[in-house]
Design a protein that fits this description.
Elements: E1 10-16, H1 20-27, H2 32-42, E2 51-57, E3 68-74, H3 78-88, H4 95-98, H5 101-107, E4 114-120, E5 135-137, E6 146-154, H6 157-166, H7 176-200, H8 206-216, H9 219-226, E7 232-240, E8 245-249, E9 258-261, E10 265-269, H10 272-279, E11 287-288, E12 293-297, E13 303-307, H11 318-324, H12 330-341, H13 344-350, E14 358-362, H14 368-393, H15 399-406, E15 411-412, E16 416-418, H16 432-436, E17 440-442, E18 453-458, H17 465-476, E19 482-487, H18 509-520, H19 524-536, H20 550-553, H21 558-569, E20 577-582, H22 585-591, H23 599-602, H24 608-623
Parallel strand pairs: 14-15, 14-18, 18-19, 19-20
Antiparallel strand pairs: 1-4, 1-10, 2-3, 2-4, 5-6, 6-7, 7-8, 8-12, 9-10, 9-11, 12-13, 16-17
Length: 631
């Protein structure tokens, strides 16, 4: 993607099921859990580069000693910083003590059995260390301590906030992370109190009573009651101070979660291949958490899979498959290749089937796999052409003609090079746009000037800013006859509210193109009518809101909007003809059959909060309010 989106936090939960001495003996270090946490977080660094944090729980720390530890940092180097800070705790420890698992378990911080890691990308614009996960809720009762981290965005923070007020609480912040922490904390408190009242009647007291409370904590009940009114996409991990841990996935299956467990370890992460790599596993060993399901690990090591909420309109995020997740996942790699292959008919139409005078390339780095799929389909097509030509000639085919046919090939080149990263110290400079134009560079003399078409594939086009400011300008320098920009995803028409920072209608090149077409064709009344209907439902319950923004696109074909986008994104002075080609939603579903969450393209939101959010986004656009449509 030429314009990287802020998106998709990443999480890791690890539970060691054996004493630290076991890992010291088998793997040569009691830090086995910390080491795996570091590796799993680094392998998911693509999911969050604004901050990172970790929390660790010791299962059997004596009274008067700490049992839950946390470290957080901001910035792209946060992972290294937090682990560096963890290991600073051991600098003054002698080698003998450091390598003694029993000593570490008793005295060293972060030497525990239960781990939670988080990588952050802000989708709300709120930044600073206070917004970096894991969040914590402290208490002298181990069972009332809660560390929380997640990959989520809630669409109904206002309702959840008001629920807390109705319970008599005074939340410290309006952000969904704070609200969920207090909501889960409230229900955890109630569960602990319920167990205390019930078990006190048995005559148990002191540590015996506390042990019984921790053993009988009903995490399923706590999660079920807390999440009854949640609307959004989420995978949430939590550690309880007594040693219980959980990861809970939303009932729509929007956000991903994968797990592995054996008799030594339980691991949960946002992506499957990172677990495979960290633990050396085959793909079939790593399972996906079901929508609405939680994996719960009790202090005694019991692993449970609990259906917290029943699945609802299950629509896993298709953007995970197109762009966000690591392409090293076997299924995602195959799907991205298929996305490239399915574009063949549109590409042939755009170049008038003139493969001999066309060069094919990609925009690095996330479109590379789709490029492989596109290349395969072009080669298959070219083989069919060769077979047809040979068959048509039959026995009359001369050796010279045969050599000419067999020499026909698909020409692929690495035309576009990602050259520099725009640094933050020039982000506000008046020359930023000029500098941004040089983020990419071009391989000169990679095509025949004035004769060749240049077909370049990207995984998605959101704003189109980089295309206009950089990509098309540099491609035009090598003088192609025609430039075809191919998107392996459909036109992005609608905002997201489930964890991707893509919430303003004016950000989308497709939306701007549709608005321009309506104005040019004297159809302003449609814009006015959509605004009137959207305003009329502004204060309705989210369950009653309709996505009327679909009517903005309804008068036009996909091709008409693509053509208008091409016109709007073509820089002045461009000599080559520009054409944009997009994946169809139908083919997207063919390529990613198990991930049909396509609301960015179709406007079909899986939750009522999605319709309310797009309604707000459209009102903000018309009224000139430049802010996110969710909080």
């Amino acid at each position: 993607m030429t314009e990287p989106l802020k998106h998709e936090c990443g999480i890791v939960m690890i539970r060691l099921l054996k004493p630290l001495e076991y890992y010291q003996k088998k793997y040569g270090t009691w830090q086995y859990g910390l080491n795996k946490l570091y590796l799993l977080m680094e392998k998911q660094h693509n999911r969050g580069q604004e901050g990172a944090g970790l929390a660790v729980v010791k299962l059997d720390s004596p009274p008067g000693s700490e049992f839950i530890f946390r470290e957080r940092a901001t910035g792209s180097g946060a992972i290294s910083e937090i682990f560096s800070n963890v290991y600073k705790n051991y600098e003054k420890v002698s080698p003998e003590q450091f390598n003694d698992a029993e000593y570490a378990n008793q005295y060293l911080p972060f030497a525990g059995e239960l781990f939670l890691g988080h990588l952050r990308y802000s989708t709300t614009g709120k930044s600073g260390i206070s917004y970096v996960h894991p969040f914590m809720r402290r208490n002298n009762w181990r069972s009332r301590n809660l560390a929380l981290a997640g990959n989520f965005n809630m669409t109904n923070v206002d309702e959840l906030f008001n629920d807390l007020l109705a319970q008599g609480q005074h939340p410290r912040d309006y952000a969904d992370t704070f609200v969920l922490l207090e909501s889960l904390g409230h229900h955890l408190d109630r569960e602990v109190q319920y167990q205390f009242d019930k078990l006190s009647k048995t005559g148990a007291k002191g540590n015996d009573l506390n042990d019984l409370i921790e053993k009988n904590l009903d995490i399923h009940f706590m999660l079920n009651k807390a999440s009854e009114n949640w609307d959004g996409g989420f995978t949430i991990g939590g550690l309880i101070g007594c040693g219980d841990g959980f990861v809970f996935r939303d009932p729509w299956g929007i956000r991903p979660a994968f797990y592995y467990n054996d008799d030594e370890i339980v691991v949960v992460a946002s992506e499957r291949p990172v677990i495979q790599t960290a633990l050396g596993l085959d793909v079939d060993n790593v399972k996906e958490l079901n929508p609405g399901q939680a994996i719960i690990v009790k202090k005694d090591g019991t692993v449970m899979f609990s259906q917290i909420q029943e699945p609802k309109n299950v629509t896993p995020c298709s953007f995970e498959r197109i762009y966000f997740s690591r392409g090293s996942d076997a299924d995602i790699y195959r799907e991205r290749k298929q996305l490239g292959k399915l574009l063949l008919p549109q590409i042939l139409k755009a170049i008038d089937s003139d493969i001999q005078h066309s060069v094919f390339s990609f925009i690095p780095n996330t479109a590379e796999v789709a490029f492989f799929g596109m290349s395969e389909s072009l080669n298959e097509y070219m083989n069919d052409v060769k077979i047809r030509k040979i068959t048509e000639k039959g026995h009359s085919l001369t050796e010279e003609e045969l050599n000419r046919i067999l020499s026909m090939k698909v020409r692929t080149e690495k035309v576009v090079i990602k050259d520099i990263k725009l640094r933050t110290f020039i982000a506000q400079d008046n020359n930023r746009d000029d500098l941004a134009a040089h983020v990419y560079d071009v391989t000169y003399q990679s095509i025949n000037p004035e004769k060749d078409n240049l077909v370049v594939i990207d995984d998605s086009i959101v704003r189109g800013t980089t295309l206009k400011q950089s990509i098309i300008k540099i491609l035009d320098r090598i003088h192609p006859k025609k430039i075809v920009i191919v998107s392996s995803s459909p036109q992005i028409r609608y905002p997201d509210c489930y964890g991707i920072d893509m919430s303003r209608m004016g950000e989308f090149a497709a939306f701007r193109a549709a608005i321009e077409l309506l104005k040019e064709r004297k159809m302003q009344s449609i814009i006015d009518e959509v605004y009137r209907k959207s305003l009329a439902q502004k204060d309705k319950p989210k369950e009653e809101i309709v996505n009327y923004v679909k009517e903005i696109y309804a008068p036009f074909t996909d091709e008409e909007i693509s053509a208008k986008m091409a016109e709007m994104l073509t820089p002045k002075g461009t000599k080559a003809k520009i054409e944009l080609v997009f994946q169809s939603i139908e083919n997207l579903h063919k390529a990613t059959p198990n991930h049909k969450g396509d609301w960015y393209f179709s406007g079909n939101y899986p939750t009522p909060g999605g319709n309310r959010m797009v309604n707000t986004a459209f009102l903000n656009y018309i009224e000139g309010v430049n802010k996110r449509s969710y909080r």
